[in-house]
UniProtKB/TrEMBL annotation:
Domain of life of the source: Bacteria
Protein name: AAA family ATPase
Keywords of the record: ATP-binding, Nucleotide-binding
Domain HTH luxR-type: residue ranges: 878-943
Annotated organism of origin: Arthrobacter sedimenti
Protein's UniProt keywords contain Acetylation: no
SUPFAM superfamilies, per database record: C-terminal effector domain of the bipartite response regulators (SSF46894), P-loop containing nucleoside triphosphate hydrolases (SSF52540), TPR-like (SSF48452)
InterPro entries in the record: AAA_16, P-loop_NTPase, Sig_transdc_resp-reg_C-effctor, TPR-like_helical_dom_sf, Tscrpt_reg_LuxR_C, WH-like_DNA-bd_sf
Amino acid sequence: MTAGSTQGEMAEGFPLAGRAAAFEQLLEILRTVRKGKVGTVVLSGPSGSGKTALLELFLDHCRTAARGVRVLSAMGDDWEAQFALAGYSQLMRTLPLRTAKDYDGGPAVAPGPVASLTPDQVINYASTFSTHLEGLQTHGSVVVAVDDVHKLDEESLRVLTFVMRRLHDKRVLFLLTLNPGDASRVPAGVLDFLTGHQVVRIPLEPLTPQQVQDVARGLFGLDLSATAAHGLVTHTGGIAQSIVELLRELPPETWQSWFPSLPPTSRVRARVRSVLAAASPALVTAAEAAAVLGPGAGLAEVARVGGLESVMPALDEGHRAGLLGLSVDQSRSAVAFLEPGTAEAVYEQIVPSRRIALHRKAAEVVQSEGEQLGHRVAATPAADETLAAELEEFARRQATVGAWQDASTALFSASRLSPDIRARNLRLLKAVDALVGSGNVAQAQAWAGAVDALPPSPLRSSVLGYLSTVSGQNDSAQSQLEMAWRTSNPQHEPAAAAQVAQRFVLHGVASWNGPIITGWAERAMALTEPGTPAHIESEAIYGLGLYAQGRIADAEASYQRASAQAAENAQKQRVQMGAGWLALRLDNAESALVNFESAAPTEYRGGSLRISLWAEAWLARTHLVLGNWDAAAATISRASVRLETSRMPLIRPLLYWTAAELWSMRGDWDRARYYVSQAAVQPGTYRAMQVPASLARARFHEARADYESALAALQPLPELDPWTDQRVSFWPWQDTYVNALVMTDKLDAAETFLTAFEGVHREREVPSDLARVAWARGRLLAAQGDPDTAREYFEAALGHLRGLNRPYLRARISFAFGQSMRRAGKRRLASSVLRAARDLYDTLGATTYVERCDRELKATGLDIGNLPDPADPVLSSVGSHHQQLTAQEQAVAELVAAGATNKEAARALFLAEKTVQYHLTRLYRKMGIRSRSELAAAFRAKD
């Protein structure tokens, strides 16, 4: 098995999915060992993380694919650990036959187990083992592997450590696996060595959702959705063994839809039954109480629910049995099960009558109203209108503060407990509506069929319209919301009508239609009292509708009022998110950053995942604008997992626009191309999806100097997202569009568009907008042959950014400025400006444009470090007749030799295509070559 073939297998199956880096690290260490250097490696990870599987795969590689490698192996065992030298005996028995005869190093097999060893005996056994290792490594390399080293007997551990500490300059690799949770079983001196600087530690981290998808596809042929993969990781803690067991045991249809929870594996069930069968009554009681109470159950709660005087003896027993224990942090202590799925397995084995009794007791013990109601629901298997009404009232109060997930949970329970079918259906509709409000679109979509089957009503149409909106289905949302409004009765049911109006507000934002936003927001607020959900959510978006109509001062005043009135609860999240949008657009990026960072978390005050994801998508954009590109990448990585598991297409293009642009600028084309594909949308979707999707494609192609493709991506935007006296565009695409027109020689079209754009009335000038218009005009003027006036516009553009922290925009303007001046023959100015652009791009990590700046600087011919070397074989390949290439000829030669067409070279260097052909003709003559292939060959010879 070669390293290359191993990598292929890594992508397909367990255990290598998610373990490729660890396997490659082991192979690299083995290569070092084979050169004559002892290595010691510890694979660490919890039980089930794949340590043993990875170890066995590596040893199999050593035995079958790595020539001249001997393997000695042992496995720790709880029962054998009571016998001295049990592990040592295993290692000695794996020595090749006739070892003693060949190496004269003492007995080949260790003596039988003894009670204990003296220090002299440890040294003797260590000496014997060392002698054998030295003898073996003279014929090749040796791998000494111990699986579950924490279960090895103490005497063997001491012998092994003695050898590892003293063996030097030998071709021996010691490879051990260790469960960090059992490290306390290892003697202190041995543990100090295994965790010291001499030892390479390779931790096996929990599998990620992407790795889980790879495992499912490679082992079982299952294409898991991101939601299913995320659910598996959450349920199992990312432990590979449990993930594979569940994928193997559950039917394939399990993974095709949203699911609220997963069962324990059969292995965990069997283990729990075995432990509980041998457990004391106190441990059984404590485990059942903890399973009923759920995660975070406190000691006092477990004691009261279980009727135990003290829980600690049961916890001690449970800890020794590997069932449960005590988790303590700064905020609280809690009873915790030690392996994922254990709580579910314990809960399953509780008989129904006792389960109901325990839930009733738990309802009396827990403090939270929501938890109390949850336990009462679990203790009520039949219909109960009184409890259903309590749940509905609780949901109403939770909705008021924006805790939509809690509201949804309560309403689903209320629906189940409703004896009347009409009440049941009404509560189900409200539950799904709250589910959409929470942002859990994946679960809401699973209920779409049930909602669609209910009798027509304004609420049913409103729920379906709401779900269509967050799913990005523009036409469906429009028709459903119109139906909901036509059949509503604002006079008799103002709250229900206001809810429909608020859904229209969200529809208006997704459409970026100012009159729709403000008109429906005013209706919703007129029909409701301040502080109600529909009123707050409409007010939180109202300012964006004002801005979309060019009413900047009114928009700012609207958010000042909303911020002052917003309570410190989840509803404030919506106001912060909307205020952040406006601040970012008006060049208050630092204020936007604060708002988005405040709106993104939902863990502590509840709130909506939908709002959180909007905030994170704009937060990533804000980081990009401010030049915090590592922070932008981290935000994208974090948000993308939640976005894919929530199944919310409305937000995907916004987040992935930033991702595509970021990785295009950093030259990671595979990742950039992936995000461009993820940002893509179908025709007929919302404007808030189509515009960023187009920008993602355009910025990708622009970074590759493919301006024809960039223009094709931007071509729909003047009609799709116009900026007029009555309508302000939110997305900054206009300068990119002009640049693409100029770079594809469509100067008349650029002039027409830009002149109209400059003539649009603006209530207030925004500095970044002024900068974009000015550099677009400068780019066009330079192409029209007026470099002096172009220089004035470029300098004005940079001046508009003075005082603003906008390194990315400044770099873009400086690059266009320098490129335009270089083409106009103003080489010194071009060199100065391009140097500034290069420094900015280098700071951002924008390697794509650092390289383009270097190419432009070389083309100026003024940067001595970039001038061609007279001894360069490219320039001297013809003999005595060669002449040195000019800077532009050298730049053209490099691009064409790399495979660029004349048109592509012209776009990259901002030259006319005829000029590129002229330079090629001259450099062919100078170099004594006749074709592009000969030019490429000359450059290959140079490299």
